Model the fold of this input.
Amino acid sequence: MQELGPGAGGPCCTPLVREPCCTPLVREPLTQDWAGDLARMFKALGDPVRLRLLSIVASHAGGEACVCDLTASFELSQPTISHHLKVLRAAGLLDCQRRGTWVYYWVVPAALTQLSAVLGTTELTIPATPDTAAVEANA
Done:
């Protein structure tokens, strides 16, 4: 398993545990490799069907869902659902196992951890721009 990102061993962060002091996007720029990994995941999640599929699998009882349970939630053909699941697997968001005639899917926890780590916010101070200064003045 790879570390969560650049500088993960810095003063406020260990490889898999983040203190609420900073987020990767604010602390330092993403490395090229980590940005590529994240871009693949975000691209996969850019489709509403795939985002729903990930949500359904993640919230399914037992943490895994049979493909037979997933198709009923969509007005799409089974081959289309299979394509979307393949994209999610290629992005590293889902994994699966064949059991008899059915395939069972589950979310890859490390992938969700990476997405959460890069998007997590903690009281960010964003410099005022002319647009934000006007909004703050009216508040």
